[in-house]
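<derive_structure_tokens>
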Amino acid sequence: MSLRVNGARRDLDLDHRVTLLDALREHLDLTGSKKGCDHGQCGACTVLVDGRRANSCLLLAVTLDGCGITTVEGLAAPDGALHPLQRAFVEHDAFQCGYCTPGQLCSAVGALREAAAGHPSHVTADAAQAGPAVLTAEEIRERLSGNLCRCGAYPAIVRAVADAGTDPAATGTAVEAAV
């Protein structure tokens, strides 16, 4: 099977029971995505699959043959410049232990894309509105509710996402910029 991981084609020979998370961590040495609960409940393993956020612990790798996968390692630019969300997380001290941070970052990229595309969330004031969703603190909390932080850095995470949400580059990744 073949995956495009962070912009590079990666050919893999995997057992059909291997999850995307295990393929990334154990076969490709991309350890940014974390194995938290291994049940899709914590969000530590969140990656982008063809631009949409997904819990990699719940996806069988073989079902993704030919898909584009972006991990936290693929968010920064090739020259090392941080993604706007990564910069905002540092500036707002939006992490403590950092275990959930890769999943929070990938989920935030996906959430900002969804909001920019006008996809409503459960708390969107006017679900029928045309255009981008307004990123209130409540909106950001709802959109990131699938990502848990055991340290409780939520207020700083919300501030970081709100700050990065004003940067049009925050909805893209280095991989997409290079393509």
Remarks:
- Helices lie at 20-27, 84-91, 101-116, 137-143, 154-164, 174-178.
- The CA atoms of residues 118 and 131 lie 5 Å apart.
- The two ends are 22 Å apart (CA to CA).
